[in-house]
Amino acid sequence: MKIAIHQPNYIPWIGFFDKLDQVDKFVLLDTAYHSTSGFLNRNKIKTPQGEFMLTVPLKNKNIPINEIQIANNSNWQISQWKTIEANYKKCPYWSDYGDGFEQIYRNKWEKIATLNIALIEHIKLLLNITTELFLESDFQIDFGNKNARNVNITSYLDGNVYLSGTGAQVYNNRSEFEAQQIQLVYQNFKHPVYPQRWGDFQPNLSIIDMLFNCGPETIHIIRKNRL
Prior knowledge:
Blueprint: E1 2-6, H1 14-22, E2 25-28, E3 42-47, E4 50-55, H2 76-88, H3 94-106, H4 112-126, E5 132-135, H5 136-139, H6 146-156, E6 161-164, H7 174-179, E7 183-186, H8 207-214, H9 218-224
Parallel strand pairs: 1-2, 1-6, 2-5, 6-7
Antiparallel strand pairs: 3-4
């Protein structure tokens, strides 16, 4: 049983879904605290002028993710949707996916976690990924912090393999995983190069860039590039 754990990022990048696709169960850390250096409320798309950061305005940030409210005192949803539409409506698969995303952006969202989870679940469905998705808050258990948290969640879900991103090497403690008979492995993600509009290829964008450009082939390209 392979487990992965990640914060519920905003329209996540391709590597997020590569990890999601490789495991049996995937836990969204919606009770973690927001990191200002992360991608909880922002992500990049490609425009004729280069990459552009879409950002969801937030109210208080120094609280658990599932309590963070969106600052809805502006028309950010309409503005962001118009930006996405303007930059992707001429892509090959806009007509396949545009309406589904528009419905999400037309809803009024009070909390960033709720919005992000809706987007993640929608993209998961488009990619035909069958991995079980869980919210940490649903367990109603204090799993601890950092390495202990990942070990305890994996153990709770009867996992014997934990798939970690390479960025977590700084705090992963292999011996704690081994003590619970859990194998610690790292995601060896190779970013795929795929057709894009407007000049040189730009990596590390939100997966919506790949979806609108590659359509149903998106997940096959990701798997083909997996190391």
